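hey
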């Protein structure tokens, strides 16, 4: 299966669709592990409590075409989703902020399963600099330009306290980093050439907390 042009991919895929694809991939991988060779949009929809037409629409962006009244070849579907998400490409990342969240992400093996490898780490705490986590020696934040150049990292996972976020971003702006996965609640001021994705955990919890009093079990 040929790889879809990157600009074309951006033009056809909405954010909700992109966020849905990992759920499809996990389900299809489980089906593959159970020996299933063909899976239908109807079965996927039933498992994920969606409408089949939405599943077909989401999967269509990957370029795969299912057979009418039969479904999708499971292995081809796995390959199509992974290729569309660029999860078949190796990405190198540096974690900045080696506290509880940063350490948890370093230990989260699922990232590596999707092609993301943690190749470096940095922290502002003198007590942590020079120590090791997961076999990685922690560098000083001021040494980020050297660390990024040495490791060839193209992404930074930012898990520092909010008060430190912008100062780290200023340093990153001088490097060849292409993206920042920002786990702080600070909107960073940084060059447009760097893609920034904010992952605000408090926003997710706000939605859950708001709806919880209204939730009733059947």
């Amino acid at each position: 299966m040929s790889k879809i042009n990157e600009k074309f991919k951006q033009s056809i895929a909405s954010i909700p669709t992109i966020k849905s694809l990992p759920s499809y991939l996990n389900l299809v991988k489980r089906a593959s592990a159970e020996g299933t060779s063909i899976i239908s949009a109807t079965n996927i929809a039933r498992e994920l409590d969606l409408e089949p037409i939405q599943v077909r629409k989401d999967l269509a962006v990957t370029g795969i075409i299912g057979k009418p009244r039969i479904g999708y070849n499971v292995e081809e579907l796995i390959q199509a989703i992974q290729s569309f998400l660029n999860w078949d490409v190796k990405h190198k990342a540096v974690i900045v902020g080696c506290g509880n969240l940063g350490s948890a992400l370093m230990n989260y093996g699922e990232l590596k399963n999707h092609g993301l490898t943690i190749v470096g780490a940095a922290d502002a705490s003198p007590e942590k600099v020079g120590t090791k986590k997961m076999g990685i020696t922690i560098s000083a934040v001021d040494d980020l330009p050297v660390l990024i150049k040495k490791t060839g990292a193209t992404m930074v996972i930012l898990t520092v306290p909010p008060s430190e976020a912008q100062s780290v971003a200023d340093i990153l702006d001088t490097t060849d980093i292409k993206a920042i996965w920002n786990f702080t609640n600070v909107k960073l001021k940084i060059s447009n050439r760097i893609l920034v994705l904010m992952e605000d955990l408090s926003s997710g919890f706000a939605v859950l907390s708001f709806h919880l009093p209204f939730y009733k079990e059947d």
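The chain has ten helices and nine strands. The first strand starts at residue 38 and ends at 39.
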